[in-house]
Amino acid sequence: MTAIDQTQQSAPPPAIRRPPNPVRVVHDWLRRHDPGYGALRRAVRTALIMPAMLALGTKVIGNPLIATFAAFGSFAMLLLVDFTGPIQDRIRAQALLGTACAALIALGTLASQTTWISVVGMAVVAFAVLFSAVISSVMASATTALLLAFILPVSLPGPASQVPDRIAGWAMAAGASVIAIAILWPAATRDPIRVKAIAGCRAIAERLRREVAFIVSHGSAETLPDYRAAIDAANAAVSDLYQTFLQTPYRPTGLTTSDRAVVRLVDDLRWCNTIVLRAQAGAHPHPHTPNPRVRAVKDAASDVLERCAELLSAPGASSGPLVEAVGSLHDALRRLEARATSELPSECEGCQPDAQPMRNKVVSALDPSFRAQELSFVVLQIAANTNVAAAAARRGWVARVLGRQPKGFTGLLSSAGERARTHLDPSSIWLHNSLRGAAALALAVLVADIVNVQHGFWVAFGALSVLRSNALATGQNTLRAVIGTAVGFGVGGALVYAIGSDTTVLWIVLPFVVLFGGIAPAAISFVAGQAAFTMVLLFLFNIIAPVGWKIGLVRIEDVVIGGAVSLAVGLLFWPHGAGRSLGRALARAYEQCVAYLAAAVEFGVGRCDPLGPTHSEPPRQAALAAAAASRRLDDTFRSYLADRGVKQVPLADVTRLVTGVTGVRLAADAVLALWESDTAHDGERGAARRELLAGSARIADWYGRLATGLEHRGEVPEPQERDLQATQRLVDAVAHDLQGADGAGTATGVRVVWTGDHLDAVRRLEQTLVASAHVAVTHEVPAEPAEPAAAASTA
Question: Is the pTM of this model over 0.90?
């Protein structure tokens, strides 16, 4: 027997190929297309509740009007809404949504009698609902359901006597929806921002620890891989946090104190990792003589971040460990500052031009303490917001009901008013979108009444479904909606024709059609969603009042009308969308933030007035204006990300410019905090005052020219070189303070130099902005589709 024969005889028999398990195939597909099974959960609930409410209205109560509103109420409150947070908060939000929808149904019914009242009412309600979404992510997630609660009654004219029946139908659905979210496959508590913030705190803490080990080892090859891995992990964690922050079309924060405190961590962690630590690593990768007091500050900072992560993981726990860690950080920072000022070289006062080495020694002695102060400030900001979130979570129910806030936070109404005022600005894209949506829905109601279509509700809802922030995207969505509706009409119409007048079969098939209608938009596509929704309507209306497959033709006609209305409004109202508004939003944000920085510096140099310290108030209004401009930029950036099509400017460059705004604003916060804690105002510092104001003016001028270039696509200024002579003059101006009468430096003199360092940090930021600004205004770099995560990671 040959070797070949032996091999053939010993070879195992070929494996029998079994057909794939259909259940596993569907499961794997859902896991890929519906992570977390959010769409499936909503679809299952709706598939169970909607037919039950319809049966209760038609078969038990025997009232088609109640049945119609019960069915659409189930659709709106289970399929179009998915609140997050603890189960008690979700139940409360669901109940409040049902109450608000009942009020809108009453208003819509009363307004439906007269055309002009219904049109004006639709415009007012649509604007109020759409614009109020800036106040809270909870309100934003309920926008479509609230609009549907007004569109349905205002499009179905009826006398005031129908209000009780309509509200009763919707109330049935609202009550069932509250029970459903509590017992039918209840979702786990989801707070993705908090989860990613915890990971960011821990990753930055590990980066600090690895950096200390790397520096202590004098940059040894053994510690380098761990240090680089920690940097990569921190970059990835912060980028993941920012991507999660941008994933929704609205700012993911509610009005609760805890939500507001946690969302502040997004900017704090990005600033710490992207601007502070990266800038420090670039300036001082591994000093030859490690400073033990800088090491102590970084160790304390990493410990604070770890305690923040622990407290965020268990917000109801005691803040004692975090408070203790913060105290240790303050102690380490004070020891570093005291040592740095006491060891300043002498004989600097009255330095002559040939005394450059002495000035360099002064700057070098203060530089490590500034770096530690810069890092400590942002870490203490993170700790403060974490502590507020925990304090808010620990409040008793009486304090929650009375609206008692932790120190430093405004009440709910004040916060809501502040957010609304932020976007009552001609440049706000949220204001643009709200006005555009209100105009489209009002026009849809008017057209439906004039044309006298059979189901005016479909016209208005079709207009809402396809409306986007620019005319091109609206036109594309209109085409997709018509195609999807036609496909749904073809499939659904064939099924209805085959079933005929046997309503029993319609009842049996309805839950499966609703299930598919709930999954299709999220897991397949917008076209599939429109097709599935058309099928749901075909079955629904043939159960309530059998009319056969022809109802599908009416649906196609109404979708075409609604899409045409939205396209017309999109062409008339800000047709270019977020792409054109982004440059303007960036410009305004840089202008407001650099004005805040200049105001903070001016507040600080008031302590350096040669005629005596001024007692001006901190620039709170400038801080609020900068924060408002940043929020408007944030919303514009979200709309830019949501717009379909290839971006003219790569997302990495846009994200870098948005990050720069954060850097300027938080540097101003740091300067303000630096001088608010200064209580010593003795000494002559007129020269220092002039130097700081001159440096601030140069920074403001550069960023002002950058803003002009971004808004008008004009020239981008070249980054400024460091003015070493200005640094020398500043050191000379506070030489007496730095030495002190007893040979020890004074705190105010050190703060003067640190303020100059903060200005220099903002100047260094120019280097990272210029290239991206050139791309933004010239579009010289070909744009490639990118994800927000990739953009954030390169910022």
Answer: no
